[in-house]
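FORM 12-B: Structure-to-Sequence Request
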């Protein structure tokens, strides 16, 4: 009689352990790789500003700064724009006061979080946020401009706003004033100081012109 085929012999215990270790190695490698990719996606938008020509880091506005900005907006009409809106708290506070408020921010995570906060607070129809570089945006259609800047950017931003804004605009600077303009109003103290510049008063522009224009001989 023909003999029956031999039964499959089991794999050696060492070979089975090696296969299991390889599977664990692949899972761990995939997990570490995925974590690094996720960290890169989250951290890069926060680190990138430090590599730009002018570093504009994200520093949340304090409650006192927000209140001081709102004081400077009292009696004002028109739209509000926050240059470098961060987590959106200035824009949302202005929207709650009835303004059409817009924020421009380069960090997409902060923009998405700002949109969520505006929706959560019920002002998403009045508060809009956009991912954009402030140097590539025209602010000509806004009548109230809020700026949380750093000293290195203020001279160039001063020139940009002077060229783009209408004469009825008000610029509200937080933490650092503009280098040449004379403020019409100031409130707060220390890091909570806020300066307001009304462009319908020519004092700010005159101060700048005196600073950069040499006298001509008659």
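FORM 12-B RESPONSE
SEQUENCE OUT:
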């Amino acid at each position: 009689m023909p003999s029956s085929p031999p039964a499959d012999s089991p794999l050696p215990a060492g070979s089975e352990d090696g296969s299991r270790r390889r599977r664990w190695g692949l899972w761990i490698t995939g997990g570490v790789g995925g974590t690094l990719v996720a960290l890169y996606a989250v951290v890069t938008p926060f680190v990138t500003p430090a590599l730009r020509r002018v570093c504009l880091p994200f520093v949340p506005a304090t409650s006192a700064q927000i209140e001081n900005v709102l004081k400077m907006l009292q009696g004002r009409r028109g739209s509000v724009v926050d240059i470098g809106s961060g987590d959106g708290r200035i824009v949302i506070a202005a929207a709650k006061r009835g303004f059409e408020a817009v924020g421009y921010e380069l960090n997409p995570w902060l923009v998405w979080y700002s949109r969520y906060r505006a929706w959560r607070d019920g002002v998403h129809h009045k508060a809009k946020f956009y991912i954009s570089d402030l140097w590539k945006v025209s602010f000509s259609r806004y009548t109230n401009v809020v700026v949380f800047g750093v000293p290195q950017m203020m001279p160039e931003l001063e020139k940009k706003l002077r060229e783009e804004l209408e004469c009825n605009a008000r610029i509200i600077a937080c933490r650092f004033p503009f280098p040449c303009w004379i403020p019409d109003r100031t409130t707060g103290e220390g890091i909570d100081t806020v300066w307001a510049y009304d462009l319908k008063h020519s004092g700010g522009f005159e101060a700048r012109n005196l600073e950069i224009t040499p006298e001509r001989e008659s």
